[in-house]
Write a structure and sequence with these properties.
EC 4.1.2.4, single chain, Aldolase_TIM, about 15% strand, deoxyribose-phosphate aldolase activity, TIM Barrel, eight-stranded parallel barrel, alpha/beta, about 220 residues, DeoC
């Protein structure tokens, strides 16, 4: 399996430097990763580096907790698109989810989806599956799967539990067939990465990407 083509090579730690982002981009080109995922302030630089290549630039909105006002998420999204982002990974409002305010969630997702889709870009919705019940994951799939997203993503990598095979399988069972899945959080070796793909993941968010493709744990940067 060519696992590299599934990977969003990621660095989202709050102390990220420009040198680290430039290194990340170079590794993405070298190993053939699908995308890099960088903090919003580095999107413009990553886009300049990767523009001549097929590697996409992803960034995050409402990260990592998701409870930013919709207006703030909208502003972040617009700026990311202006700066050159190809893919936008948006954290769901977990407060609204826990309060069963699905009307709010659908409205927010549809608003952001319209902006992202109008630019021909990709919308990934992060639901933080590791802290949700199975029923909550199913509701996310059933209520938000048709709200304009392209991917449902398991995790930010900052909760106490990241991606699991079981969560990916549950999403695949309940999402519309055209909606893809991104697994992220705690993926540190090839074996686990392959299990997630076999379970239905179309993309993997990893900071240990080079370690995964080379089998050399010394390349595990722990940049999530």
């Amino acid at each position: 399996m060519n696992i590299a083509g599934y990977i969003d090579h990621t660095i989202l730690k709050p102390t990220t430097t420009l040198a680290e982002v430039e290194k990340l981009c170079g590794e993405a080109v070298k190993y053939g990763f699908a995308a890099v995922c960088v903090p919003p302030s580095f999107v413009k630089r990553a886009d300049a580096i990767l523009d001549p290549t097929d590697v996409k630039v992803a960034t995050v909105v409402g990260f990592p907790f998701g409870y930013s006002a919709t207006e703030a998420k909208l502003a972040e999204t617009v700026l990311a698109l202006v700066d050159g982002a190809d893919e936008i990974d948006v954290v769901i409002n977990l407060i609204a989810l826990r309060m069963n305010d699905w009307d709010f969630l659908v409205k927010e997702v549809k608003l952001l989806a319209e902006v992202i889709r109008n630019k021909g870009k990709v919308f990934k919705l992060i639901v933080e599956s590791g802290i949700l019940s199975d029923n909550e994951i199913i509701e996310c799939c059933e209520k938000l799967g048709n709200a304009g997203i392209d991917f449902m993503k398991t995790s930010t990598g900052y909760a106490e539990k990241g991606a699991t095979v079981e969560a990916v399988q549950l999403m695949r069972k309940h999402l519309p067939s055209n909606i893809k899945i991104k697994a992220s959080g705690g993926i540190r070796d090839f074996e686990f990465a392959k299990k997630l793909v076999d379970a239905g993941a179309d993309r993997l968010g990893c900071s240990a990407s080079v370690a995964i493709v080379t089998g050399d744990p010394s390349f595990d940067t722990k940049g999530y």
